[in-house]
Write a structure and sequence with these properties.
Strand content of chain A: 5-15%
Number of strands of chain A: 16
Radius of gyration of chain B: 24 Å
Helix content of chain B: 25-40%
Structural class of chain A: alpha/beta
Strand order of the largest sheet of chain B: 5-6-7-8
Distance between the termini of chain B: 51 Å
Order of helices and strands of chain B: HHHHEEHEHEHEHEHEHEHEEHH
Shape of chain B: elongated
Strand order of the largest sheet of chain A: 4-14-13-12-11-10-6-5
Oligomer: heterodimer
Radius of gyration of chain A: 23 Å
Strand content of chain B: 5-15%
Largest sheet of chain A: 8 strands, parallel
Largest interface: A-B, 44 and 53 residues
Structural class of chain B: alpha/beta
Largest sheet of chain B: 4 strands, parallel
Distance between the termini of chain A: 67 Å
Number of helices of chain B: 13
Chain lengths: 537, 443
């Protein structure tokens, strides 16, 4: 039986699937870990950092893309400028007759990619998203796992991909479904063959679906995204078993080969590799092994992603992994940090050298009534709070999103009332505001980098974000600064219900807490050669 | 006199349409379309819960009607508001007499919540009062069972001496408010705050809360000079007693006679109820009232508060009340009903477009070339048969869903519906509104 049918929820009726999957599992034996280590013995033993292609080649902004001279016909990457380690670049995706795209699509970086899990950004219409200048993200995300369930590959094939299906004119990136290994772990079983999910939909009667790397790529080929992600073996970063991390790292490399093999649309679709390896940033550690594996396959990989983060690990571990990967990854290929989307994280990680980000945080938190704002020290505003029930101001005076309209739009009190009564209009307006906020942030960062003033930008941003400045005590670890801006946001949209009390949790946290610059920010920025303590008390 | 009590700290008094400086709607859209809900809601809730006002008292004072006066006498603790003060019956009144059920934009009925605790207190205070009264006469204005008004007690029966409220610019008979158990005079603003009279600026489509994009579509219609207007309308109360209807209409009358209070705008639309009570007695009474007593000089239109179509004879009766008066029926639930009413020349609202979209139904209105009648073609987006459908809902439709270059297919709309995305409803609603727009143009 054709395995592609297994992904289709509606077609899961044959009992033969169960027996079939057991055959498939037998075809993919897991190699012993010693055999896996052998090719990388040199790296594991050595004490030097894996690095390749570190020489930057700059092109001026506005250079026309040339896909014939690009090493990958599906992507032309132009690095324009670096300010410290921060990079401003442009990704060009080629014209594609199959989706009626006549001119190349350009994606300026640093870029935040809003998440449209099931083929739409929740509550926004694409018409509005494209035509409103303050929004217009050049690239958005889709999720392979969810799109494979609904509408299904047969529909996507019939329409000619997600671009045509959802009438999205910009670029698209699809996640492979690997993250669902973490988010739906209770329902998933990971074997060498692939990931076996129990369908999360009750009506399917707990049918099992096997998502193989080949399957993931085939689905992503059906979706037709400009950037596809390899299926990687994701382990939650707070998992405490080194063996599992090691197995996952080597499996990710093996699966990458299988993914590259099964990509049938190399001319139009890029396949990005995902660096795994837990939080092991030591020389000769798992991240190094993974990077070395990629170095050997570099000619087949148009871009890289840093994965396995944003899963609840401490910020101290988080920035170290990002920093290490950015130091190793080649300069002339894009870098994408998966699942990261808090404004502060964006600023810090851009300083470390990341180009692309995605997260459901801005859009999800909007629907729960939290607006991202600049002019208020915690950086967020819970509009549902009674504090705003009589506030006639707009969210931000200088925001030109459809909600604020430069101070002439919807007042906080109106939004408050609408959120309280569950009006879809409120969700739409808040989402628009938060997307506009993120787009404004990345545009500001790009401008600063192009002008060579990223350090100044970081300084002014941090100063606004942490009004109490810098404290020696925090650095010594005597006072722990709780970063109360954001609650943990799982990347999974289908768990939305369980996080509905997010706003309530935020409300419970102390308001009067002093906001010193956290230790990790100081350390991460100093790794990016920015001494943030200078000039800030 | 300052309007009652100062606002709570850290809160801003919500500007209201009738206050000075006058309320100006946000400018990002044509001023002729503004949400009604947030305004209504925002006015009522903060005033009642935060500033200690209760809505009803204000109306009572304003009307200056006899029975209302006595109510004020009883509940006189106006100064305290409903903040839970002992013996304060403000909350009681708020719950029992007002209990406003507002038509809110999505067409749902929302009932104002009052806490159970408050209700108990009110009951207790009621009992206490009864015990304390010597010759307290109780009895509601009309014997109707449903939420009846608070027992009307003559003012002198209250323990504290009645303190006349200052009669600044108030309609004459208002000056008898008292405060229970305190010498603080009941301070009521003489001018009815805006929350009883919502300035409703809307286009002909009515005043549903619809997503931004849809508003933009409507704005486009207006820009092309296809109708639209600005009206003032009092709250649409779900009135099921004669008294309550009377209150509102008398209030209108007072305003009319007075030439409008300071900063007040004349209402130009007034609500009429088609389903007041079984048997239609109330309806007759209402019509009689409108015919004989109500001052309709500045009223431009009547809004029928009904989710089902009304008979043509009722429409005729309404039209006979005043030369050239318009009749609107914005709360209909199905497009067929709306079509029927539109053919009678009745203004319809966006209600049916929203209601149908909530159910996952998109409709096309097609004019039959032979007899010139409009026909409805429905699409049930829940229908799995649409899964592969690449066609748009209607070629040439200018809605968010069908217009170039998006041209969202029925298959995509089905997918959005199936996955429960809000976007689906937004697109669907937009389409339905554009279809209704066609109707408006042709009628």
């Amino acid at each position: 039986m054709e395995i592609s049918r297994q992904v289709k929820r509606t077609k899961l009726s044959d009992e033969s699937i169960e027996s079939n999957t057991s055959v498939i599992h037998a075809n993919y034996p897991t190699p012993p870990i010693e055999d896996c280590r052998k090719p990388y013995a040199e790296i594991i033993a050595s004490k030097t950092r894996v690095e390749w292609d570190r020489e930057a080649k700059f092109t001026p902004v506005g250079t026309e893309p040339d896909f014939t001279s690009s090493p990958h016909p599906s992507l032309d990457f132009h690095l324009h400028a670096m300010s410290g380690h921060a990079r401003a670049s442009t990704l060009f995706f080629p014209p594609r007759p199959s989706i009626n795209r006549k001119a190349p699509v350009s994606v300026p970086t640093p870029i935040f990619m809003p998440v449209g899990t099931k083929g739409t950004i929740k509550s926004m219409s694409y018409e509005e998203l494209c035509t409103v200048k303050s929004l217009s993200p050049p690239i958005i995300l889709g999720n392979t796992y969810h799109l494979a369930l609904d509408p299904g590959t047969d529909v996507l094939d019939s329409f000619g991909g997600l671009h045509n299906f959802s009438s999205w004119p910009g670029a698209l990136l699809t996640d492979s479904g690997g993250f669902q290994m973490v988010s739906l772990l209770k329902l998933a079983e990971i074997t060498e063959a692939g990931v076996e999910f129990e369908s999360p939909y009750a009506k399917d009667n707990k049918k099992k679906i096997l998502l193989k790397p080949e399957e993931s790529i085939r689905t992503q080929n059906s979706i037709g995204a400009d950037v596809m992600m390899q299926l990687d073996d994701v382990v939650s970063s707070i998992h405490d078993g080194d063996e599992r991390f090691e197995e996952a790292t080597y499996r990710t490399l093996r699966w990458l080969d299988r993914c590259i093999e099964s990509n049938i649309n190399k001319e139009e679709q890029n396949l990005f590799a995902i660096v795994q390896g837990g939080l092991d940033v030591s020389l000769g550690g798992l991240r190094e092994v993974c990077l070395e594996g990629f170095r050997r396959r570099d000619d087949k990989i148009p871009g890289y992603a840093i994965g396995g983060l944003a899963g609840g690990e401490s910020k101290d571990d988080f920035w170290k992994v990002v920093s290490q990967c950015c130091k190793s990854l080649p300069t002339n290929k894009p870098r994408y940090l998966m699942g990261v989307g808090y404004p502060l994280d964006l600023v810090v990680c851009t300083a470390l050298g990341v180009d692309m980000y995605d997260c459901v945080y801005p859009t999800r938190t909007a629907r729960f009534g939290v607006a991202l704002v600049d002019d208020r020290s915690p950086g967020t505003m819970r509009v549902k709070s009674n504090e705003y029930s009589l506030d006639e101001r707009t969210l931000e005076p200088n925001c030109d999103c459809p909600c604020c309209k430069l101070g002439k739009g919807y007042s906080r009190s109106k939004l408050h009332m609408m959120l309280k009564s569950g009006e879809p209009l409120a969700a739409q307006l808040m989402t628009a505001h938060n997307i506009a906020y993120m787009m404004r942030l990345v545009r500001k960062m790009r401008k600063a980098i192009l002008e060579g003033k990223y350090e100044e930008f970081v300084r002014s941003y941090i100063k606004k974000f942490f009004p109490d400045g810098y404290s020696e005590e925090v650095m010594k670890g005597e006072t722990v600064v709780k970063d109360n801006r954001h609650d943990k946001v799982t990347q999974e949209d289908d768990k939305e219900e369980s996080t509905k009390d997010e706003a309530a949790k935020e409300a419970a946290k102390g308001k009067d807490e002093q906001l010193f610059i956290p230790k990790w920010v100081v350390e991460a920025l100093s790794a990016a050669d920015i001494d943030i303590t200078k000039g800030i008390k | 006199m300052s309007p009652s009590r100062p606002p709570q700290e850290n809160s801003i008094l919500l500007p209201c349409p009738s206050c000075t400086p006058p309320y100006t709607p946000p400018q990002y859209l044509p001023s002729s379309i503004t949400l009604v809900l947030p305004l209504a809601d925002a006015c009522l809730v903060p005033y009642s819960s935060k500033l200690g006002y209760t809505f009803e008292k204000r109306t009572a004072k304003f009307h200056g009607l006899e029975e209302d006066e006595s109510e004020v006498g009883v509940s006189g603790g106006v100064g305290k508001g409903n903040s839970g003060g002992k013996g304060n019956s403000g909350g009681y009144k708020f719950q029992q007499i007002i209990l406003p059920i507002l038509e809110i934009p999505t067409g749902k009925l929302v009932r104002f919540k009052t806490t159970k605790k408050g209700a108990n207190e009110q009951d207790k205070s009621k009992k206490k009062r009864k015990l304390g009264e010597e010759g307290g006469v109780s009895g509601s204005a009309d014997g109707s069972a449903a939420p009846a008004p608070a027992p009307a007690t003559p003012a002198p029966a209250t323990p504290a001496p009645a303190t006349p409220a200052p009669a600044t610019a108030a309609p004459a008979p208002v000056a008898t408010a008292t405060a229970i158990g305190s010498s603080v005079p009941a301070v009521r603003p003489p001018v009815l705050p805006a929350d009883t009279s919502v300035v409703l600026k809307t286009c002909k489509f009515g005043h549903q809360s619809i997503p931004l994009s849809t508003y933009r579509d409507l704005a486009a219609c207006l820009a092309e000079g296809r109708g639209g207007g600005s009206w003032t309308m009092p709250f649409v109360w779900h009135a099921n007693t004669r008294k309550r209807v009377g209150d509102i209409l008398k209030y209108l009358k007072v305003k009319g006679a007075d030439g409008g209070m300071e900063g007040q705008r004349q209402p130009s639309l007034i609500p009429v109820w088609d389903e007041l009570e079984e048997g239609g007695g109330e309806k007759r009474w209402l019509i009689d009232y409108l015919r004989t007593e109500a001052d309709l000089s500045c009223v431009e239109g009547l809004v029928v508060v009904s989710s089902t179509p009304v008979s043509s004879s009722f429409v005729e009766v309404l039209r006979s009340l005043k030369q050239g008066i318009k009749v609107y029926c914005p709360y209909l639930k199905t497009v067929e009903d709306a079509l029927g009413m539109a053919e009678m020349g009745v203004g319809i609202g966006a209600g049916c477009a929203v209601e149908e979209a909530e159910k996952g139904v998109a409709f096309n209105l097609v004019k039959n070339q032979v007899d010139g009648k409009w026909e409805v073609r429905r699409f049930d987006l829940k229908d799995c048969g649409m899964r592969m459908d690449k066609g748009v809902l209607e070629e040439g439709c200018g809605c968010l869903s069908c217009r170039e270059p998006r041209r969202h297919s029925k298959g995509y709309l089905h997918h959005l519906w199936k996955t429960g995305e809000i976007t689906g409803k937004v697109l669907n609603m937009s389409h339905n509104l554009w279809q209704l727009d066609k109707l408006k143009e042709s009628l």
